[in-house]
Amino acid sequence: MTTDLSPQTAAFGRLRIDYDHRVLQPRPWTVAQSVWAAELLHEAPPGPVLELCAGAGQIGLLALSLAGSGRRLVLVDRDAVACGFARVNASRELPAGVVDVRRSPLETALAPGERFAVIIADPPWVPTASVGRFPRDPVAAIDGGPDGMAVAWVCLEVIARHLLPGGSAVVQLGTAAQVDRVADRLAGDPSATLRVAARRSYGEHGILALVRHR
Predict the structure, then answer these.
(1) Domain annotation for the chain: domains and CATH numbers
(2) Which residue in 27, 60, 193, 197 has a CA-CA distance of 20 to 30 Å to 168?
(3) pLDDT of 39-90, one tens digit each?
(4) 207-213 and 194-201: which strand pairing?
């Protein structure tokens, strides 16, 4: 599906990303997530890259562009408009056949046997009661449920099932407290296969967590 309105174009690192008001505008600070993922790809095992809650696809596309790895990229989002823009952006910025855009709920987007060397996750992390603070953003793109963590937990379940041994995931959250919750839950669950290995904070903008297998 493509969009039916004239898009805007934003610079995102060295890429040009099309979007409109129905899709979350690319955030300049999240270039750092692409850069971190690209760094991890240089040491990652063989395998494709996955982006969850991909929106217009900019974070995953820039990561692959920076890494120059020749890997495949799968972009997953439940929103048809976002997927339309992701396809347009992928067709402009990466060679044909490299990117697979899937419109799907996270839980059903992947086949059981699919595994990924690096996973990028950009779940909405704003608590429902606070979405009114961001009137220019599409509610569905930022609403993370009562505590801002509802979609993040689903992303972590997908990561646990589909991350290759020796692989890495870079998960975007809003606050250090949210990362603490993830770290505490994983550390306190004997059946959990993941751990928070590192974090990088970007002040009021957000925080990135590096998640790996134990």
Answers:
(1) 25-213 (3.40.50.150)
(2) 27
(3) 999 999 999 999 999 999 999 999 999 999 789 999 999 999 999 999 999 9
(4) antiparallel
